[in-house]
Amino acid sequence: MNAAMKRAGRQKGALAVEFAILAIPLLVILTGITEYGRALYYYNSLAKAVRDGARLLSTQTPTDPGYATLVSGVTCTVVYGNNACTGDPLIPGLTTAMVSICDPVSCPATHAAVPTGTGVANLVTVQVGGQAGYTFGSMAPFMPAAFGVPSLNFAPIAATMRQVL
């Protein structure tokens, strides 16, 4: 047996060992990238739902008939994407209790007849999360802990719009 064949015999299995050493960090990085992408998707979905709710609420005034029904419909629109509160929530773990609405009726000191440069305006604010925000539920619960983050909490997401007069 020549020297080249002896060296080749000693190299058997080296590739498998190198792959095993690199596979674990690569899987952790891949999972982290995927979870980060999911978290961004959830955040953007919440922000869009809040904007849609504020836009819907800004189309009527508190004196319009059916305004109280519209306010409860906005809560359902933010959570379920429809005003009937049917189907699955847009984001897992999102409930109607997490949605708060501030309009000229519920917050008259800050949202009724607010002076602007061109007169006065009523404001509407729709918020998800309250003080605690929204907690992102990872599909790989070990990932946030692996990076020293116990859980991922979004700050409260809110949208304020001018209401028609």
Helix-strand makeup class: alpha+beta
Shape: elongated
**Sheet with most strands:** 4 strands, antiparallel
Mean pLDDT: 84
- Count the DSSP helices: 5
Note the run of SSEs as H and E: HHHEHEEEHEE
Number of strands: 6
Q: First CA to last CA: what distance?
A: 95 Å
Radius of gyration: 26 Å
How many discrete structural domains? 1
Oligomer category: single chain
In percent, how much strand structure appears in the residues?
15-25%
Contiguous uncertain segments of 5+ residues: none
Q: Helicity range of the residues?
A: 40-55%
Walkthrough of the structure:
- The protein has 165 residues and is of the alpha+beta class.
- The protein has one domain (3-163).
- Helix content is 46%, strand content 18%.
- Strands 1, 2, 3 and 6 form a 4-stranded antiparallel sheet that branches. The chain has a two-stranded antiparallel sheet with strand order 4-5.
- Helix 2 runs antiparallel to helix 3 (67-80).
- The protein is elongated.
- The termini are far apart.
- The relative contact order is 0.16.
- The mean pLDDT is 84.
